[in-house]
């Protein structure tokens, strides 16, 4: 019995000594490396779990180097001289002068008697009175433009008097009375027409030669 108690006491002493030695070893290890807990993790822990491959991000593209042309383009506005203003445009040429009218020695008219519906075409020399029934025509000028072209233009300045003839019973005729004075136009007879209750007359053309007497 005494031997058993002595063996149990010896075992407790040995166990206590062993535990104290382990505790002293642990505290000495902690004092030798105090920064172990704050050290960065090893590369093996940051690379991910073992057996899983790590995919690296793609590299960023590198911009192409600037060329000499780009450099010259960047500095061209500051180095180039200001643009010169464009020279003024020359004025347009003046329009051609109007054609000179050609004077004719006589004018050709056509007259209509509204009562008898009789028509008559006759020539009137410039400055010479010509009678048609109770009308007397005096042409002051007759001009033409565009001769030789497709549509020549003719105009005449004429004076028309109403001068009835004597009735034959010995009574004197009434004095002449002016019924028209102005320009007549062969291509536009309605522009300045002759208006009379009995007669109608308009310009046909200008003659190139004086008609025979």
Overall pLDDT:
77
The coarse silhouette is rod-shaped
- Structural category is alpha+beta
Helix content: 10-25%
Assembly type of the chains comes to single chain
Low-confidence stretches: 30-46
Continuous helix count: 3
Structural description of this entry:
- The protein has 213 residues and is α+β, with helices and mostly antiparallel strands.
- Helix content is 22%, strand content 28%.
- It has helices at residues 2-32, 43-46, 68-79; strands spanning 102-103, 106-113, 118-125, 130-132, 135-145, 153-162, 177-185, 199-207.
- Strands 1, 4, 5, 6 and 7 form a 5-stranded antiparallel beta sheet that branches.
- The protein is rod-shaped, with a radius of gyration of 66 Å.
Gist of the model:
With 213 residues, the chain is an alpha+beta fold.
Present the secondary structure layout.
Blueprint: H1 2-32, H2 43-46, H3 68-79, E1 102-103, E2 106-113, E3 118-125, E4 130-132, E5 135-145, E6 153-162, E7 177-185, E8 199-207
């Amino acid at each position: 019995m005494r031997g058993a108690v002595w063996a149990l006491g010896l075992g407790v002493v040995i166990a206590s000594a062993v535990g104290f030695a382990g505790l002293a070893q642990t505290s000495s290890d902690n004092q030798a490396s105090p920064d172990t807990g704050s050290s960065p993790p090893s590369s093996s822990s940051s690379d991910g779990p073992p057996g899983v491959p790590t995919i690296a991000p793609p590299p960023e593209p590198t911009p192409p180097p600037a060329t000499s042309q780009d450099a010259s383009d960047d500095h061209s506005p500051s180095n180039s001289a200001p643009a010169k203003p464009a020279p003024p445009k020359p004025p347009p040429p003046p329009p051609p002068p109007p054609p000179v009218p050609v004077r004719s020695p006589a004018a050709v008219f056509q007259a209509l008697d509204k009562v008898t519906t009789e028509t008559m075409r006759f020539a009137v020399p410039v400055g010479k009175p010509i009678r048609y029934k109770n009308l007397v025509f005096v042409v002051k000028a007759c001009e033409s433009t565009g001769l030789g072209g497709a549509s020549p233009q003719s105009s005449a300045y004429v004076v028309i008097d109403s001068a009835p003839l004597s009735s034959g019973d010995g009574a004197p005729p009434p004095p002449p009375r002016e019924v028209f004075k102005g320009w007549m136009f062969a291509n536009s007879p309605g522009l300045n027409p002759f208006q009379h209750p009995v007669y109608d007359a308009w310009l046909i053309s200008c003659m190139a030669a004086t008609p025979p007497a």
